[in-house]
Amino acid sequence: KVAAKLNLKKYLLLGKNEKKSLPVSIIADSVEALLAVIYYSCGSKIAKSFILQHWGEYIEYANSSKDTENYKAALQEYTQGHDLGLPEYKMTSEEGPDHKKEFEVAVCLMGKEIGRGRGKTKKEASQDAAKSSLKSLENILNIKTEKNSVKQKCK
Description:
β2 and β3 (112-119) form a beta hairpin. The protein has 2 domains: 2-67, no CATH class; 71-141, Double Stranded RNA Binding Domain (2-Layer Sandwich). It has helices at residues 2-6, 16-20, 24-42, 44-64, 71-81, 122-141, and strands at residues 88-95, 102-109, 112-119. It contains 6 helices and 3 strands; from the N terminus they run αααααβββα. By secondary structure, the protein is an alpha+beta fold.
């Protein structure tokens, strides 16, 4: 969208076939190259200003969208940022008939279970488990530990 708004296509040297059906990868590469030129030629302040000017509406949308809650990513960022290692996701149960399955996933950190989650898909269960794990870590780090929050070992 930004490449179209900037009309980058007219500045690209392309072969006849490429002009007819311009691959998304070439458009993405051209936008990336433009940002690199601005950053290295003008500095980070100008590059930031350019990004906000042309991507601002998309950034705002992404930040305000409720669909962007990715608890797995948040958990991984937190654990890596605090040198706790990577969380491991383990399927603990799968119940119900094929058309109506329910999955349960456990999250382990440093060999200890820190959360569990359930969902209609493995992805949903993993997200729920990550959300539960973030709450557990918050409680542990605020010294609000509950019994069994980190006691069960992962196999």
